[in-house]
Amino acid sequence: MDEALRPFGLTTFQYTALTVLQHRGELSSAQLARRSFVRPQTMHEIVRAMEERGLIEHAHAPGNRRIMEARLTREGEELLAACAPAGRNWRTGCCSTYRRTGGPRSARAWRTGSPP
Question: What is the pTM of this model?
Fold first, then answer.
């Protein structure tokens, strides 16, 4: 996946976080880490790099000003749209492998991004 995303300047972890934000909306770094399957410390670095590139921005959570939530910027949305074919091609390859080895339930999870 890293190889497919390299032309877009993204890592697999960054792409995962961006797609999670695209599907889930605004999330704290801790929520984003859980949904991206990385540790909070790792997500902090990922978020910082994406914020420096202008792909995401932070705002205070409604009702709790101590929590900062990340959200996609227009640049982040445009980059995701541009690299969507690379992500689809990678997921299609994974799904065909998982169908052969893990059954349709695993393939569906990889294809939709939801847990099995």
Answer: 0.74
